[in-house]
Amino acid sequence: MEVLSKETIKPTSSTPHHLQKLNLSLLDQIAPPTYVHLLFFYQCSSPELDHSQLSLNLKNSLSHVLTTFYPLAGRIIPHDSCIDCNDHGVEYAEFRVHACVSDIIYNDPQPAELQKYVPMEPYGLLESHACGEVIPLAVQAPPHSEDIGKVVTKRFVFNKEVLSKLKKLGASAEVTNPTRIEAITAFLWRNLMIAFRQDAKRERKEIKFVACHAVNVRSRLSPPLPAHSFGNGTLSATAWSSKKPVNKDEDEHNSYAVLVAKLRNAIRGINHDYVEKMLDGERNGCMENPCGDQVDNDVWLEVYIFSSWCRFGVYGVDYGWASPFGYRRLVCLSRM
């Protein structure tokens, strides 16, 4: 990978003094410390495309964007739960990859292979959930955290035939039409439960398996937030398994269809009333424990975290090469 240029892009105009401190909302403060790489793949629309002019357009556009979305050019102050909107700017870099883009994506590479094409240190194009969900930014490096050991990242593809079969298997009297997200999440959740139980090293008597799924609350509020509102707009829906053991044989308490229903109920429970109740607790200094009475000292919790990027419109991201023909996400985890 060849470095062509690196520079810092700053806003076209300075942020007014009264806007230079932005307090993080409750949703921003409780967002997990996760950083996401976004890799977009584009076709070269014309062999005569002027890349230098395109680069100049990108930098000028970014500078104007930073004026409107001024927190992106600032720096997070973790201990003060705010953003110092100091117009320090964001890093812009250009690299040349000595490879054919189509070969990269059509060979269906695993995330570890794609990591080679994230050029910037520490982690290329980043999205920080402390400030703005699917808005790409690099306002700070990932926090220094203790070693969390080896992390395995894999990619599995579910074709439409398999997905259709899963939706049928997950249907029940309570949920007659599982969504694709419910079907796949419940499938992964159940198989992770089975794998955990089959590990001979696990000798806990009481285990609860928890599925936490990110939910976009923008449309669930009353009135709903605009679709393109800035900042974090997600909460975690929490579904709990039964304490009953999960074996190879079907268990009615934690069957696939039951887990689908648990997920749906949890996700639908994230609504306007839930958010208001949470905010009331924060205002009164008594945030409700999301675990409630589900946990006691004799229970081991095994937590799995899920999210979905469906309907985020990533294929509409046009930087001058028209829409991308593919994209990939690479997630950088920090210990929570």
TrEMBL record:
Species lineage: Eukaryota, Viridiplantae, Streptophyta, Embryophyta, Tracheophyta
Database matches in Gene3D superfamilies: Chloramphenicol acetyltransferase-like domain (3.30.559.10)
Pfam families: Transferase
Database matches in InterPro entries: CAT-like_dom_sf (IPR023213)
The name this protein goes by in its record: Salutaridinol 7-O-acetyltransferase
GO MF: acyltransferase activity
Record organism: Sesamum radiatum
Family membership: Belongs to the plant acyltransferase family.
Keywords: Acyltransferase, Transferase
